[in-house]
Amino acid sequence: MMRNSICVIGSSHSVCMRKYFNNSVIEAPDWYVSAGRGFLSLEAREGQISTRHPGAQQRLALTYGGSTLRIDDHEAFFVIGDAPRLNGLVHVYDTHRLFQHDRWRSKYLISSGCFGSILEDDIKNSTTFKIVKAIRAHSDAPVMVSHLPLPSVCAISAPVKALTKATLKWLDLARNGYALDLLAANLDAARAVFEPLNVRIMGPPAETITEDGLCHDIYMKTDDYTHKNARYGELMWRDYLSA
Amino acid sequence: MKTPYESAPATAFWKNFVTGGASAQRDEIYRKKFNIARSDRIATAGSCFAQHIAREMRKNGYNVLDVEPPPRGLEASRMFDFGYGMFSARYGNVYTVRQLLQLAAEAIRGPQRETVWEKNGRFYDAFRPSVEPDGLGSRDEVMAHRLSHLAAVRSMFEQMDVFVFTLGLTESWMTRDEKEVYALAPGALAGRFDPNVYKFVNQNMGEIHADFLAFMDLIGRPVRYILTVSPVPLTATASESHVLLANTYSKSVLRAVAGQLSSEYENIDYFPSFEIITSPMARGVFYEHNMRSIASIGVSEVMETFFRHHPPHVDSNIQVDKIHDDVGEQQKCDEEILEGFSK
Questions:
Q1: pLDDT digits over B297-317, tens only?
Q2: Which of B116, B131, B143, B145 is the best mutation test for A, with the most CBs of A within 10 A?
Q3: d(Cα A238, Cα A224) in Å, to the nearest integer?
Q4: Element (H, E) at B47
Q5: ipTM, two decimals
Q6: Which residues have CB under 8 Å from B279's CB, separation 6+?
Q7: What contacts B128, CB < 8 A, 6 or more positions away?
Q8: Considering the entire predicted model, what is its pTM?
Q9: Which residues of A touch B139 (CB under 8 A)?
Q10: What are the beta bridge partners of residue B201?
Q11: Coil/strand/helix, residue A13
């Protein structure tokens, strides 16, 4: 089977880009996408990525045309998976604060070095990192990893039960003016982890980010405060190509 | 009675100690002065050996305080790098009683010092330089962290019912006016050694004894103390003496002070971890190959003896949280940095 040179390996957060291609005349890259636990179940061995998760196998067969991805079949990869994400950040901020954000409130101070170490470990424990290492073990092909999208602005007025804990905490950080700094820290941590593997990191597209560190509502997937629409996907693809 | 030794117990005779074996040693070598209830709040500090005590007490159901808990997500293998989980607060190794006294004075009376050491454009708390391996971004940030730390230490001193302290060294570096004492020599990890500013001090019994009494005065509450002396030899000495002689002096003085305090005060107990490890009966097997680090078998021997007398609170509902359990058998000795200066 002929393969496109570029392959997107993704979780549900890559679907917005697929929608962009569905609405476009541009030829889409290959897709190897499975949502949620399906993505987390991906395994890499001997130059191939696959899964033993039945639902994910189905999903991968549907998106890729086969349940196993041979790394050598592609000349470039774009990974939009489970990291870098907001979870590591927000959980630390439950109890700890960086010096520049909050000195004397009822939290513990944490150094940027320790904070960075936590963020790096969160990324290293991700499936994204596992996949990237597997690609690099078999290929010198360019690899790009995207930061996951930020919650949409309208999540602020959403019912609490409609939001994940990480989203709720991020909204609180945005309200306090910490979110952009923390996003930058997360991207720095991601660079520290991935650049030694010669892998590039992409943040959320610049024009999608509000001054509080949320995502403008025009990029929101209908009734979904976390996932994004085709317009966001278009910007991701643009940033990927220009990087 | 022909001689007073006739009525002495069997434990008074070396021969019985030698033939009695390990179990006799565990039974007889220590007689506790007080019990530690599972509700007692325990604080720990001291040299690197004290880290074993904190960890083992936690594992055995004792309520060991941690007033500066690690942030969620910090890998167990990195916790000690940032001073988390080693003791009840992030003060790093407190090798000398003078350091302990200085820490308590700052925590209880408020910060009196603003000493910050610099290295390669990064800034370090001179009194605990190893808790931030890459330093901090500015002097202001160091002071903010110090104030936050001291507030936590104060709360620890206010809460604790039992304080376990391991005396490690008599040698230290101070400012020439002796107003500041450091855990590490200036310049070893950060800062710069200036002989016009700093001097070497090797404290004697009287000074250390007085420092500990001053510390208890500062605490000012009915706290029970368990003192131990670290069996870990000096990494290096600045005393111009041979390191073996310097080590013997240091441990002898510390052991004598601990013994004296224990005999003078009902609320101070001495636990003989030093004797258990260094005893001729052990024939050195409790040391690692470097004849300095304590092997895990040695730590087990010490703690088994401790828990024979202070039984584990196995039915305790005080759970060992996963964070502290994950620390495993890590140990961090700031003093070991001196080994890098060996010729």
A1: 999 999 999 999 999 997 655
A2: B145
A3: 23
A4: none
A5: 0.86
A6: B25
A7: B83, B90, B91, B92, B149, B183
A8: 0.89
A9: none
A10: B172
A11: helix
